[in-house]
Write a structure and sequence with these properties.
Layout (H helix, E strand, L loop, with lengths): L8 E8 L3 E8 L6 E9 L13 E3 L2 E2 L4 H27 L3 E9 L11 H23 L4 E5 L3 H9 L3 H10 L10 H17 L8
Parallel strand pairs: 1-6, 6-7
Antiparallel strand pairs: 1-2, 2-3, 4-5
Helix pairs in contact: 1-2, 3-4, 3-5
Length: 208
């Protein structure tokens, strides 16, 4: 990452799915940012379909530990970190001065605390794909903040200083300036990027 960038402050938000993430780069003033980039980032190799759900051996069945699982996990780390790293480098090449990364997950529950084996497998995969983004951010000298999706409205009120619905309305309006899909995952990624941008921009934060 080129740390000498002098362009507008920007942050990248990621909404993590199984094997991929919606990524949105938000730039400019933390009070009224604009979308600089919106894309899908693959976190696993499309030529290796099993890596999309590496802990699954089949529906509701856990893959056993061993060489095959190790191969899939290594593939996810290698391919995913390259994909995320390429996006962060592209943002810098486009003149954006990245101040951090935001990450949205459906759940942050420790998989080891989950009794149901199928739910535990999904939680392990969620943690795996989040770790890919966290590591890529760290390698580019960027901090990474994580929120549960259901906590975004509260975080928006506290960090951005606007009610959750107000932020969501503003985010929905970005659709006209974006090529490609603008669904729930892109909107969540945008809010995460906005939160990072607002924190870096020094907006006064409300206490609970």
């Amino acid at each position: 990452m080129n740390r000498g960038q002098t362009g507008p402050g920007a942050a990248v938000g990621f909404a993590v799915k199984s094997g991929w993430a919606a990524a949105v780069a938000l730039a400019g003033s933390p009070t009224s940012p604009t979308v600089a980039d919106s894309r899908r980032v693959d976190l696993c190799d499309p030529t290796l379909p099993e890596s999309r759900q590496p802990y699954h051996a089949g529906f509701s069945t856990a893959r056993e530990s061993g060489p095959e699982l190790d191969r899939l996990l290594e593939s996810v780390q290698r391919f995913g970190m390259k994909s995320v790293g390429n996006l962060l480098e592209q943002c810098a090449a486009d003149g954006l001065r990245l101040v951090g990364v935001g990450l949205v997950a459906g759940s942050l529950v420790d998989p080891d605390t989950i009794g149901n084996s199928h739910i535990r497998i999904h939680a392990m995969e969620g943690r795996l794909f989040r770790s890919v983004i966290e590591r890529a951010a760290a390698e580019n000298n960027l901090s990474c903040a994580t929120w549960r999706e259901r906590d975004l409205d509260i975080a928006a009120t506290e960090v951005i200083g606007r009610g959750g619905q107000s932020v969501r309305t503003a985010v929905a309006s970005f659709k006209d300036s974006v090529k490609g899909p603008w669904r729930a995952e892109q909107k969540a990624a945008t809010i995460a990027a906005w939160l990072v941008l607002a924190k870096a921009g020094g907006l006064p934060q409300r206490s609970r």
